[in-house]
Each structure stands twice: as C-alpha cells, then as structure tokens.
Amino acid sequence: MKSKTILIVEDNPSDAELAIRALKRNNVINPVQVVVDGGEAIDYLFGRGKFIGRDTSALPGLVLLDLNLPDISGIEVLKTIRETDFLRELLVIVLTSSLEKKDVEECYRNFANSYLRKPVDFLEFSSIIKLISDYWIGTNVPPAALRVNK
Questions:
Q1: Is the pLDDT of residue 122 over 90?
Q2: Residue 147 forms part of a structural domain
Q3: 14: domain range?
Q4: What CATH number is associated with residue 125?
Q5: How confident is the model at residue 133 (pLDDT cuts 50, 70, 90)?
Q6: Number of domains forming the structure of the chain
Q7: 142 lies in some domain
Q8: Which among 89, 122, 128, 136 is least surrounded, fewest beta carbons within 10 Å?
Q9: What is the rounded distance in angstroms from the CA atom of residue 76 to the CA atom of residue 124?
Q10: Residue 7 in contact with residue 44, Cβ under 8 Å?
Q11: Exposed, middle or buried, 57 (CB in 10 Å: 0-12/13-18/19+)?
C-alpha cells in the first residue's frame, strides 16, 4: 500500500489540510487526492467528470470519508463503493465529527472498515492519523494485495 493514493473526501478545506499535514507529520509518503463532495468522490473512483481519463484500475489504497458532504452524502458514497464490484474491497475509514448512533450504525451496516470521530485539536487529529497510518497503511493486508494481477 506504500505507493497507493489516499483519497480524502472532505468538504471543509481546513480539515482536508489538517489531514494532509498530519499524514506528512507521520511520514506517510503516499500520494493524496482530495475531493470536496460525494459526487466528486464517485467521479474520481469511476473516472468521470473532471477525472475522465484517470486510470480506474489504480484504485486508492485508502479512503478517508467524511459523512456530512454537500451533493451526495458520505453514506451514499460508502453504499456506492460497497455495491460496485471493482470498488467493493476498498478500505474506507469514516472520519467525521458525527457521533450520532444512526450514523455509526449505518456506516457499519454498509461495511465501513472503521468509524473514527474527527478531533478538533491538531495534536489529537495527528494521533488519529498516526493510528490510521500505522494500522491501515503499515500493518493491514487488504484482500486485493493477495491477488496476482494478470
């Protein structure tokens, strides 16, 4: 997963910048792509709209997904990912400010890999990103990594 892109789906530019800074602070060298709403996330994954021509076989290694997005909600993005054969195994970490029981349940019902509350403080945010990078980027072996590409 070392060279795979991290897709950040975040409509708040400050939060997106915090995530990028926290990744750099934790020595994550993966390329990062930021999209600002659910529609743009889906366009990126399917290689449409402003991402037309993007190699859709080069899937992100990790998606950091906010829930409260304009256009298409994070939950709808998650559902689309899980309902699409070539996207189904993407690692999706919901990183949101919501602790609403219904949001947590809906995300896990739609097979989010993890649901984390987004802290406001940068040091806490950086700690969360470190946990994500240590486990999901550094340690976890996703199913796609076990396949031989032909």
A1: no
A2: no
A3: 6-137
A4: 3.40.50.2300
A5: confident
A6: 1
A7: no
A8: 122
A9: 28
A10: yes
A11: exposed
